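Next comes a concrete protein, fold included:
___
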Amino acid sequence: MSEQHVDVLIVGAGVSGIGMACHLKRECPGKSFTIIERRESLGGTWDLFRYPGIRSDSDMYTFGYNFRPWTGGKVLADGPSIKQYVHDTARENNVEQHIQYGLAVVSAEWSGTDKCWTLTARKEATGETVTFTASFLVGCTGYYNYDAGYKP
């Protein structure tokens, strides 16, 4: 079991997680952070759902990042274009190296005494346990449950 400490721990490398990391780099450059992502790629929803015709139901001018305005041709962009936008944003803001892939969150606990979060994650490929501590924990996980998808 290994342990890592950062100022800010972000759970999820989708639109929100990448946006949070970019804002941290811009507004709090002295803070350390890590993004943990269960999947093996960034993009969240836009990496998970790849069916033909998937697209945003929100216009990209308000859905996109204020610090990196959408310049694509489609107002309601398709999934691959959105995933590329998120990926390019991560690369341009040098947050890719802060992402640790393949980690499923097992637990998160707050200690008022230590003023610290302790998050335990499991490496999906090996089953190894990893522990993170952080002053701030930001959940950017979206709504989808990978273990039990929604059944209408």
In short: The mean pLDDT is 93. Residues 143 and 149 are 10 Å apart (CA to CA). The beta strands are 2-11, 33-37, 99-101, 103-111, 116-123, 129-139.
